Amino acid sequence: MEDNEKRLVDLVADMDEEEALALAKEMLDGGTDPLQVLDLCRQAMDLVGKRFESGEYFLPELILAGEMLDQIGAMAKPLLNESPDAPSNKLGRVLIGTVQGDLHDIGKNIVTFMLDINGFEVKDIGIDVPVATFVEEIKAFKPQVVCLSGFLTLAFDTMKQTVEAIEAAGLREGLKIQIGGGQIDETIRAYTGADGFGLNAVDAVNFSRKHIVGA
Prior knowledge:
It is a single chain. This protein has two domains: 3-80, Methionine synthase domain (Methyltransferase, Methionine Synthase (B12-binding Domains), Chain A, domain 1), CATH 1.10.1240.10; 93-213, Rossmann fold. It has 215 residues and is an alpha/beta fold. Helix 1 (3-13) packs across helix 3 and helix 5 (106-117) crosses helix 9. It has a five-stranded parallel β-sheet with strand order 2-1-3-4-5, sandwiched between helices. It has nine helices and five strands; from the N terminus they run ααααβαβαβαβαβα.
């Protein structure tokens, strides 16, 4: 990892907001791939999440990290949207949100950016989303794919409850559900009842493309 890349991860993870934002801007202005900057933020959030679960960090740190990453995301998104390859016609609808009990949103935001610039109509319903809200939004938005995001291990139970509620509401037919976030793997996918899992934003785009476009 380059010095600046490692430094950005450390600055975000250590809650050094002023220096982190300045370095992110410097990197973006200097031509660093905005997706790379966002991925560094995701790596930093991994560290923040581990510190939260170990009791080193608390809710205020999670909120500050989220605010920092929102600001970096705001700097990076216009550069992502400048991609000349971005399709003009929407390929399909994707609903995305972080499940109830989890406040992490950097991973969700990166996935939303990537789906958007790859031609999908994306509705981001935010963080700490109650199970019933997912059901209501699916009825209203009628997506072909739903992405459930969550970083903390406690999110796995909420993901399972959300999938079960979607099924109970009779909305599962023709709908594909993907989970993503922290320590997600095939075991967690099977536990939650989702159709797939993603380790990064590219996985999310490929999943949606496969199930909506068939490519």
